[in-house]
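Quick one:
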Amino acid sequence: MDKTIPQTSEELREVLAGIIGVEPADIRDDSVLFELGLDSVTALMLINSWRRAGLPAPSQEFIDAPTVGHWWNLIATS
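Output:
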């Protein structure tokens, strides 16, 4: 699991693409990660690794709105 917090939306797409098994270009801001194949256990493991690295956003906020754009907004504004 990637323990570093993504610094750009492109970096976030690369991390997610590697986990899901798709190309980063196939992931758009409005892509729902669970529809692309991300499962909830893996999502929580990834989010919790970012939280241990210092990301203050609560895990539930990621789960409640699981689009890439929303995830990036949570990361960028934290």
